[in-house]
Amino acid sequence: MERAQERTQTDPAAGAALELLVHGVGGATPEKMLNDPRTVRITGDDTAAMYRREDDVNAEAVDAAAGGPADRPVPEAYVWSNLTSGNGTRALWLLLLPFMVVNLAHWMRPATLERTRTVRLYGLLVRLTGLTLTVLLVAAACEVALDLTAWQCAGTRACAERHSWLGFLSPAVSDNGWWSLPGRRLALAALVPTALTVLLWYLSHRTWRAYESQEPPSGRTEPQDAPGHTALGRPGFWYGRRLVARLRAAHTAAGLLTVAAAVGTAAAREDRSPGGPALLDGLGWLLEAALAAGALATVWVVCRRGRSEHRLDRRLDAHLVRRLPLAALTLLALTFVYAGWERPAWRSAGRLPGDVTFGGIALLQGGLVIALAVVASTLYRGSRSDPEGRAALRGLGGPAVAMLACALGGLMSGGVSQRVSDWLDGTGTYLAGPPVLLTWQASVIPALLIVLLALCALLAREALRLARAERVAVAHEYGADPGDPARTQRIARARAMATLTDRAPLLVAVTSTTTLLLGAGALVGAFATGRTPDRAAEAAHPFVHGAAQTGQALGSWLIGLGFILFVTWGRRAYKDASARRTIGILWDVGTFWPRAAHPFSPPCYAERAVPDLTWRMATWTRATGGRLVISGHSQGSVLAAAAAWQLSPADRSRVALLTYGSPIERLYGRWFPAHFGPAALNALHEDIDCWRNLHRPTDPIGGPVRLSGDDCGPEVDRAALADPLAYGRTEAHPLPSPILGHSDYQADPAFAQERERLLSRLHKEVPAQRAKADDQQRVKADDQR
């Protein structure tokens, strides 16, 4: 049951207690979170909202009438699942995965309080890497539409006759019809990558308005660059409108210029041939100069500035945002006119010069990743914020993930090209096929899979060894000797499998390093031989030739199959709850961060969720002066911490944090040390009233926060919870207890104990004078600004 409620706090219950529940990966219904089928939406919309039990809608007024707060806290659930797992069409966002991954690399830089210029250089290199991915995607669309379809297939009689829908583009089939000239065919086919670019622009603009255009509360007075305070507490962190708009304009222009270059350079190359018309030759040079100027302007926009987190980015560079894409679109239209000019002697043969394009992109991406690794290593060596060496890959997580983004982009572009080529030329006798480099890149995939399979075998062996060791620990902890061997083995296996999460840095390191080396080998092989691997190895030993043929054939099928499975698995993930839970944590981590490196990545749900939670906590504590426990499970704990960082110091001191199954240190602290490192988590521990964290040894996602107790409160982590609650049948558990792993933390008695402990530590009543002083301080700070 849902209905909007408008409530005024004219006579609030001083000291009322509120428990704000935030769910995690996979979502949850308000009925399940509140353990009541009768729930009411008190604020929010169909995308994200706050819910209460029907009996608790006016709990503050009832408490005030009774003369004081109730003994129990009022539970309130924040449901944000529609931000990430709405209808099944959002599976199409998986096609933007390379953009999301490179955006992640931006946030993975090592923590440092100095070296501001080096930090800016790190962000610049990631933004440039993201720009190359946009160019790669549009170039792949050009390869399919322009080269394989309009140039090769339409220019070959047998292929055009086989695909009758291309007949009007074929000189032989259409008897030299108007559209059969190569330049006109290319101009018409270029509408496909142009439409793709416009679609990406539209989706980025639309999702910004739908998800990310939520302004957080302003007027905070704390020093934002104080040691230990993370950037997540800055006013403009969750509102980067200006940067997203600039990047959206630059990437749109880059896509349109890529299409213009694919069409215009083919025509200009024909005009430079002996006997070509001088006028068209001159126009070709002017066109290429204009394309180069547009490319330089686009790169300049990307390089010019990064995020302005110290303030809300409300301003837009209106002229730049509008004129840059419009200028690129105008240049593209002029290119269509130039390419469509009458050239009776022009014939299409062979391939368009795609090897140079894809080779240049691959070379540039490799150079950017290596430079990024050097910068990240410099930042890590100059920082002292990781004394225990918890940061993933010793600060090189960002470059490794950026390399994976480039590999994913190459995999998707190569997979589409290979499959379209096979579809157009089923016998493999009509067309020259995709660029040689794409074939080489596909051929190294079997080698990469062999390396990954070997690594997975080693990890499995380690997990089995650990499971054997855990059997002894399980028997000792539960006093089950000899016990039930099958039961003991299941518990030990669950614990061993949960540790595989901590092996993710090794998997990422091996994958990215192998990809870089194999990619470099493919690049050298393609440009050194100019032929596909099987033809380049014809004169080699029969074993080498056979291996080259096998790798090329197997790689071609694997790259296409992988792309198809990737899309279908993504579609299933939004229909099947179990599949969504499996990959949900990775997807939710990727879309948690704002779009700082790539504007076409999937929208950032936290730019809606964090302001929602911040506004709710701030308004409630100021209106009631009461006690508030924000209770976050899994990804909800990360949202809770991010929202607490956004509160003013006075509001933050009235809040207690309860996290369970939390990846805040195990995942975020290791991979994003600049924002969730030990210094940032310690600062949060000091600023809020108290923080307690629950975790289990069988949980593959959540883990300890690793903060010790001090003057600011007790130790954060409670001892690891028993899972299952009972080994066998007992009076308290007459039926076998399940192994819960990452779910149902509230079923453990420790949850209620820790919640009561937090409530008892919070001030029972906040004096009105303190709230009034805080308000006066905020007004004074606003006046100073």
From TrEMBL:
Species per Swiss-Prot/TrEMBL record: Streptomyces galilaeus
Protein's name in the database: Lipase family protein
InterPro entries per the UniProt record, alphabetical: AB_hydrolase_fold (IPR029058)
UniProt keyword Transmembrane, yes or no: yes
Transmembrane segments: 121-141, 186-203, 249-268, 283-303, 324-341, 361-380, 392-417, 437-460, 506-530, 550-570
The UniProt record lists the keyword Transmembrane helix: yes
Domain of life: Bacteria
Keywords, ordered alphabetically: Membrane, Transmembrane, Transmembrane helix
